[in-house]
Design brief:
10 strands, alpha/beta, two-stranded parallel ribbon, Rossmann fold
Length: 468
């Protein structure tokens, strides 16, 4: 449903609005008339609902912005281009003379109805399009790069050829790097007893993540979608295939047309989930599967060392040692997650900081990013930083919000002079009801201003009488 509404009904680049009849006609190979009408009506309800709440999504935003008649940039660089809908791509095309697009078809896990063939069609109707493939893989060790390449081959054998799949060779050998696979068994219970947290567990969904969080509260656990675009030295994929085993079973009974690259195939999505998880590992990859689908039997046999759950837990401990993630790394991750909008992950990283003061500061940074900065409310963030004694950051955000008067107010409330302030500071009265120092300055200014007005009125009255 989400894929249809977001990726197709509002995500397709169409000439004019997509009517119900046109949608029903275009999707007759995928849905019955009743199903297509239901999905279309659902989309209209979705649009009405978010508009009524003053919200907007990326597709609707791209349609709402009036783009200039002449492009304003010489070049726009679109990374992870496979995650864009056609509506978003058309918007960026309208802003730039040329586009440099980077993507990997096997990392398509967003419901965008994207295809690289359509990308060239959509963006470069008259231009010559150059396509280049990566020659070198700068992320993964040779062992992991080999697994990634083999998984890409399996993907193509199953669904047919499609372009922009990472097939580059690793740049250098990584001593001790490996990929192991094993039945899940009691692996997690054994890992829970280990002191170290210097690895990342990757699961298929948020529901799976919540299940594991109860057992492993201190470990970093991310969904495939959350780790996409990131990388870690040691990654443990846990039941990423097994939780979708029923989909792979159904796939064996489904006829796939391999002559055309269906880059948005529902089943290809489940391959891509696993591919993204595998490619996040820089050096060491552990794959635990309770019930691996039959399609992957040969793949695991040829590309992984096969071990047991107990041996895997021991190997993980030996690999990462008994060390914890470096404190600076926790801070870096907290900031990175916050900027990605993954606030739960950001707070989890922040709460792993040992120093109380540092932990309090990083938690505040994440919270204010979530509640103010991500929404563009820089002044609100500045006020909150001031209330928490972070005056340097308060001034920085006042400046970003274009309210330098508030920096002057802060200085005055901190014992400096308030000479630069005038009655206009009253605009911020409501923000400082709980700040005694600021309120004292504002009320003092108002009192001074009222006295000035009174004197002015008296003077005007005298002049009026004299003129009479």
């Amino acid at each position: 449903m989400y894929k249809e509404v977001y990726g197709y009904i509002f995500g397709k680049a169409t000439d004019g609005p997509l009517t119900k009849e046109k949608y029903v006609s275009e999707r007759k190979g995928a849905f019955t008339r009743e199903e297509a009408e239901f999905v279309f009506d659902l989309a209209q309800d979705y649009k009405a609902e978010i508009v009524s709440k003053g919200l907007i999504d990326l597709n609707l935003a791209c349609g709402a912005v009036e783009t200039p008649a002449v492009p304003v940039y010489s070049l726009a660089v679109l990374d992870e281009v496979q995650d864009f809908t056609e509506a978003q791509l058309a918007f960026f095309r309208s802003l730039a003379v040329k586009l440099f697009c980077v993507g990997d078809a096997s990392q398509m896990v967003n419901p965008a109805y994207f295809s690289f063939a359509r990308l060239k069609d959509l963006l470069y109707k008259k231009d010559v399009t150059d396509v280049a493939e990566l020659t070198y893989n700068y992320r993964n060790s040779p062992e992991i790069a080999g697994v990634v390449a083999a998984l890409s081959d399996l993907n193509r054998q199953t669904f047919g050829v499609h372009g922009f799949v990472l097939s580059a060779e690793a740049v250098a050998s990584e001593e001790g790097a490996f990929a192991v696979a094993f039945p899940a068994g009691d692996f997690l219970k054994r890992v829970a007893k280990q002191k170290t947290d210097n690895f990342t567990i990757v699961v298929a969904s948020g529901a799976e993540k919540e299940k594991l969080r109860a057992l492993l509260p201190q470990k970093e656990i991310l969904t495939v979608s959350e780790i996409k675009g990131l990388e870690r030295d040691t990654v443990v994929l846990y039941d990423v295939l097994s939780v979708n085993e029923d989909k792979f079973r159904k796939l064996t009974r489904t006829e796939i047309n391999r002559k055309t690259a269906d880059e948005n195939s529902l089943y290809r999505y489940y391959f891509n989930l696993f591919y993204v998880g595998v490619s996040r590992a820089r050096r060491h990859l552990f794959v635990a599967e309770e019930k691996a689908p039959a399609q992957f039997t040969a793949f695991f046999k040829e590309n992984f060392q096969s071990i047991g759950a107990a041996e895997a837990a021991t190997k993980l401990c030996e690999t990462v040692g008994s060390t914890l993630v470096d404190q600076e790394e926790h801070k870096r991750r907290a900031e990175e997650f916050a900027r990605l909008g993954q606030y739960d992950n950001a707070l989890h990283a922040a709460n792993n900081l040992i120093n109380d003061g540092e932990r309090k500061n990083v938690v505040l940074d994440v919270t204010l990013w979530r509640d103010y900065i991500s929404r563009g409310d820089y002044v609100g963030a500045g006020v909150a930083y001031w209330e928490n004694g972070r005056l340097k950051e308060a001034k920085e955000y006042f400046a970003l919000g274009g309210e330098n008067d508030l920096s002057d107010l802060l200085d005055a409330a901190s014992g400096g002079g308030g000479e630069k302030l005038d009655y206009r500071i009253l605009r911020h009265y409501d923000k400082f009801k709980n700040n005694p120092a600021a309120m004292k300055i504002i009320l003092s200014l108002m009192k001074r201003d009222v006295e000035s007005i009174k004197e002015g009125m008296k003077d005007a009255s005298r002049k009026l009488k004299n003129s009479k």
